[in-house]
């Protein structure tokens, strides 16, 4: 926790014994690990390379990856379309 504090990172945790508090992020990280990490672990030669790949994946997930739940649009486009309706 001290190292996180030194780096200016705020640690956030859900309530003890309540996994539902963070189910959306848990789902995202599960998808990310399945799609870009598992089976590719040896491809990451440095931590910086891994960090860049994670940033690229987050961009892909938010701006390019389509899902039926978002009417076959990437999440960013779905949010934009939803805001127009309001």
UniProtKB/TrEMBL annotation:
Gene3D superfamilies: Ribonuclease H-like superfamily/Ribonuclease H. GO terms for biological process: DNA integration. It holds the Pfam family rve_2. Residues 26-82 form the Integrase catalytic domain. One of its GO terms (molecular function) is nucleic acid binding. InterPro entries: Integrase_cat-core, RNaseH-like_sf, RNaseH_sf, Transposase_IS3/IS150/IS904. This is IS3 family transposase. It comes from Candidatus Scatoplasma merdavium.
